[in-house]
Amino acid sequence: MTTQDNPLETVCAGERTISLREITDGDRKSLLDFANRVPAHDLLFLNRDIRNSKVVDAWVDQSLGNQIYSLVAEEGGQIVGCVALVGDELGWSAHVTNLRLLVAPESRGVGVGRAMTQRCLSHAREQGVLKVSARMSPDQGGALHLFEELGFRPEALLRNEVKDLDGNFHDIAVMALGLN
């Protein structure tokens, strides 16, 4: 039985059923398709552009190698969200992990992001992580609200932190939650 046949959790919103599961090797093309459906502005908080197949390949490989904990949200065979917990167990901040959450616009506000984040926070606690941080652009009001509701607090505003493909600079907000 594959993880696609055995979801970790199901989010029901009206007539919609969205399943959460761990990322698989077979998700590479679906992740690229998903990334290309999401507005480019929504990708700016990520450290890398997941519209690039090399980036997706590295992400999936690291997830399968248990270096990154990654989930996808799937509806009707199509990925509608993804999340990753990324840390550096050899660095000075090995006790901290970064949560990277992305939900398709048409799937926001129905509990997908919340369910994926809660699943990741549980995993982080199990792994002994003491702090989880999240990055987003300050205009992503839904994300800011979700993380605040889950106990995250603002830590920093990084001005002109990222530059989009048109050369425009954007700020990044950093929020964090202590797990100890």
Q: What does this entry look like structurally?
A:
The longest helix has 15 residues, at 112-126. This protein starts with 8 loop residues before the first strand and ends with a strand. Helices cover 26% and strands 36% of the residues. It has one domain: Aminopeptidase. With 180 residues, it is of the alpha+beta class.
Q: Keywords for this structure?
A:
26% helix; alpha+beta; 180 residues; eight-stranded mixed beta sheet; globular
Please describe the topology of this protein.
Layout: E1 9-13, E2 16-22, H1 28-37, H2 53-64, E3 68-75, E4 78-87, E5 96-103, H3 112-126, E6 131-136, H4 141-149, E7 153-163, E8 169-178
CATH architecture descriptor name: 3-Layer(aba) Sandwich
Number of individual domains: 1
Radius of gyration: 16 Å
Give the averaged pLDDT, no decimals: 93
* Helix/strand/pairing category: alpha+beta
Main beta sheet strand tally, sense and closure: 8 strands, mixed
Identify the strand order in the major beta sheet.
1-2-3-4-5-6-8-7
Q: Please trace the helix and strand order, writing H or E for each element.
A: EEHHEEEHEHEE
The low-confidence runs, each spanning 5 or more residues with pLDDT under 50, are none
How much beta, percentage-wise? 35-45%
| Top-tier CATH class | Alpha Beta
What's the helix count?
4
Looking at CATH, the homologous superfamily is: Gcn5-related N-acetyltransferase (GNAT)
Number of strands: 8
Helix content: 25-40%
